[in-house]
């Protein structure tokens, strides 16, 4: 078994209202120095060793993200 992480983030040209809300809240909570936040999603999958990068790409593109507004990256942890 292998552990795989799929990180999904909004594309750079897509507005991120959740990230903007966090940036606005930080100074009110006493945190300074943060000028931008982008909020995304992280999925951790345990897969058989036989699952290759092409299969992981199909999983990410068909189920885990909206490819019109999001981009994704797969990282194998083990």
Automatic annotation (TrEMBL):
Q: In which pathway does it act?
A: Purine metabolism; IMP biosynthesis via de novo pathway; 5-amino-1-(5-phospho-D-ribosyl)imidazole from N(2)-formyl-N(1)-(5-phospho-D-ribosyl)glycinamide: step 1/2
Report the locations given in the UniProt record.
Answer: Cytoplasm
Catalytic activity line of the entry: N(2)-formyl-N(1)-(5-phospho-beta-D-ribosyl)glycinamide + L-glutamine + ATP + H2O = 2-formamido-N(1)-(5-O-phospho-beta-D-ribosyl)acetamidine + L-glutamate + ADP + phosphate + H(+)
Pfam families recorded for this chain? PurS
Keywords, in A-Z order? ATP-binding, Cytoplasm, Ligase, Nucleotide-binding, Purine biosynthesis
Q: What is its EC number?
A: 6.3.5.3
In terms of domain of life, where is this protein from? Answer: Bacteria
Q: Does the keyword Cytoplasm apply?
A: yes
Q: Name one GO cellular component term.
A: cytoplasm
Q: What broad class of enzyme is this?
A: ligase
GO molecular function annotations of the record: ATP binding; phosphoribosylformylglycinamidine synthase activity
State if Ligase is listed as a keyword: yes
Any one Gene Ontology biological process term? 'de novo' IMP biosynthetic process
Q: What InterPro entries does the database record attribute to this sequence?
A: PurS (IPR003850), PurS-like_sf (IPR036604)
The text of the family note is:
Belongs to the PurS family.
The annotated subunit structure for this chain is: Part of the FGAM synthase complex composed of 1 PurL, 1 PurQ and 2 PurS subunits.
Give the protein's function: Part of the phosphoribosylformylglycinamidine synthase complex involved in the purines biosynthetic pathway. Catalyzes the ATP-dependent conversion of formylglycinamide ribonucleotide (FGAR) and glutamine to yield formylglycinamidine ribonucleotide (FGAM) and glutamate. The FGAM synthase complex is composed of three subunits. PurQ produces an ammonia molecule by converting glutamine to glutamate. PurL transfers the ammonia molecule to FGAR to form FGAM in an ATP-dependent manner.
Q: What is this protein called?
A: Phosphoribosylformylglycinamidine synthase subunit PurS
Q: Look up and give the organism this protein is from.
A: Antrihabitans stalactiti
